[in-house]
Amino acid sequence: MENFGIKDIIDILLVAFVMYQLYNLVKKSGTTTIFKGIIAFIILWILIAHVLQMRLMGAILNKFVSIGMFVIIILFQDEIRRFLMTLGANSVFRSLVKLFGGKSKETGSNAFVTPIVLACMNMSKSYTGALIVIEQEMSLGLYEQTGEYINADISTRLIENIFFKNSPLHDGAMIISKGKIKAAGCILPVSQNPNLPKQFGLRHRAGLGISQETDAQVITVSEERGKISFMSRGHIYPNITPEKLQELLNQPVNAADKSERTHK
C-alpha cells in the first residue's frame, strides 16, 4: 500500500467511469445480461488465477481470456461504435478540439423549427406516418447515403408531400442537416430495447435506434394513432403536443436530456 498514490486513484476512477458508460450503452441496447455475464467471468478469472492461484483451472481460463477481446468486439461491435461516437461528441473533447485549432460543427439557427412543427401537426391530424431526424453534433452522412439525396430548403408543404401515403419516400426517414432536408427514404438502425411499449411499431423503433447511436433529435408521427413523439439520446417523449414539440426542438440536446422523461 506504500506505493499507492494519486495516479492509482485516477486509474481506478477512469476504469470506473468507462465501465459505467459502457453499462449505460448496453442497457439501452438490451444486452445487459451478456455484459453482466462478462463481468462475472472476469471476477471469477481474477479469483481463480490470481487470488487462489489454481494452476489448472487458471490455465484454462487464461486461454479464454486471451481470445476474449475478439469475442467482446464481435458481441458488442454496435455498442463499441456507439461509445466511440458518444465520446467524440462529448463537450469536453469538443472543447479540446477548439483549443487546438479545430472547428466544431454548428447546428445553425432554429428558424426551421416552425415549418417542421406545422408539418407534424398537419400530419398528426391526417394520420400520416412520418419519421424526421435532425442532425446535431454527430454527422448523419452514413445514413443519408441509404436514401434519396434531396438537399432542399425546409418547408411545411415539402415535408408533407414527402410523407404523403402515395409518395415513394414516405416509408423511410427524412434527415435534416444544416437547415436543409438532406435526404429522404433513409434506412435507420432499429432499436432492440425490450422495454419499448408494444403500441410503438417499426417507425418508432427506428427513431429510437438512431437516437441511441447518435445525438440526433428525432420526431415520429404515428400513422395508426396520429400521435407525435420526440426522441433524444435513447429516451422517448410520447404523445406530445405541437407546443411541447417546438419547446423540445428549441432546446439544446443536453438540456432536453435533463428534462422530464416519460419512457426510457
Structure overview:
With 264 residues, the protein is α+β, with helices and mostly antiparallel strands. α1 (6-29) crosses α4 and α6 packs antiparallel against α10 (242-250). It has two domains: 6-99, no CATH class; 113-258, DNA integrity scanning protein, DisA, N-terminal domain (YojJ-like (1), CATH 3.40.1700. It has helices at 6-29, 32-51, 55-75, 77-89, 91-99, 113-125, 141-144, 156-162, 202-213, 242-250, 253-258, and strands at residues 130-134, 148-153, 173-177, 180-186, 217-221, 228-232, 235-240. The chain has eleven helices and seven strands. A hairpin with a 6-residue loop joins β5 (217-221) and β6. Residues 103-109 and 258-264 have low confidence and may be disordered. A seven-stranded mixed sheet has the order 2-4-3-1-5-6-7, with helices on both faces. The protein is 52% helix and 15% strand.
| Secondary-structure-derived class | alpha+beta
Which bin fits the share of residues in helices?
40-55%
* Main sheet attributes: strand count, strand direction, barrel closure: 7 strands, mixed
Q: In DSSP terms, counting alpha (H) and pi (I) runs of 4 or more, how many helices? A: 11
Corresponding CATH superfamily of the largest domain = DNA integrity scanning protein, DisA, N-terminal domain
* H/E series: HHHHHHEHEHEEHEEEHH
CA-based gyration radius: 22 Å
CATH architecture of the largest domain: 3-Layer(aba) Sandwich
Report the portion of residues in β strands: 5-15%
The fold-level CATH name of the largest domain is: YojJ-like (1
Which sequence of strands runs across the widest sheet? Answer: 2-4-3-1-5-6-7
Shape: elongated
Task: State the domain count.
Answer: 2
Q: Give the mean pLDDT.
A: 80
Q: Give the strand tally.
A: 7
Write down the CATH class of the largest domain.
Alpha Beta
* Poorly predicted parts: 103-109, 258-264
Q: State the separation between the terminal residues, measured CA to CA.
A: 43 Å
Protein name: Diadenylate cyclase
Transmembrane segments: 6-26, 33-52, 58-76
GO molecular function, one term: diadenylate cyclase activity
Pfam family, one: CdaA_N
